[in-house]
Input
Amino acid sequence: MRGSHVRRVAGVLTVGVICAVSIYACTFFEKTSASPKAPEAAATPPAPPPRIVASVNQGQTEEYEDPTDIPTPGPPYGKENRDPNVVMRNFPVDSEGNIDWVKAFKENIIHPHESLDLNKPPMPPFNFDIEIPAVGAMPNVIYPHYPHTFWLDCGNCHPSIFVMKRGANPISMVKIVNGEFCGRCHGRVAFPISNCTRCHVKPKQ
Amino acid sequence: MRKFWLPLGFIIGFGLLFSSGSTLAGFYGDMVLNSKAEKRGMPPVIFPHWYHRIEFKCKVCHPAIFEMRSGSNDIDMNKIISGQFCGKCHNGTIAWKPVQCARCHSGQPGLTTGPLMGVK
Output
């Protein structure tokens, strides 16, 4: 009796998995057959995305797109594509599957503008790592200034979010989850707090 | 009794398929702007951070144009059309003009101001 019960449960699970896989495969092939150019585009190295400002300044007089149109894969992203799964299909992801924006600019996949003034030179990177001790057996945090100063100015964080003095910021994970310190951006717009090992990188001796 | 197991298998299968989140609308980092929109009869605004990040660094907009705290920017359409907030770029010279309402006012009714996903 017990054996047949196990067999029944296993059968149900097998049918379930087969059903899920087959439906997923159907939708997958439907997508690929609907856009036959997508695999070719994925095979070639990603071209730098076109810039909205530059293309407008070159005098292109395209009218506004119809927002009900289905986006087509490939550039120009600014005019046609607002589907994140299409636009960012070649973007690097971190261990949790979120877009790794730091890797994206380090690998020259994105070239975000420094300012609305196109002639403004980019700020030189500020390569200064800070080690922040962690509680218990958790590896210590290495805070890298470099990727943060790529995106932000000093004034975005100092002194309103972080006081510029070692030990003057009582950071804790509870406060971060509640939206203070790192949590002002991380967990909301920057990568989520659930990705522990992206910050807690230096094991204790 | 035997007829019961096959439908159950299908139910579990559909459950596995749709629990993967592939049908989820929106993207991590999207912001909902709904302090005025719904009161004035428009759907909430969804601001896609991911899209703007491809073209501009955070420092272009923060904190000069938008303060980095949801709900702390008193945005309305008059200000946008007169060149404040979104209107700094969305004026037809840098980015498209704010003439197609549904491009921004695309949220489901009832959303609260703040991040669409992640910590509220």
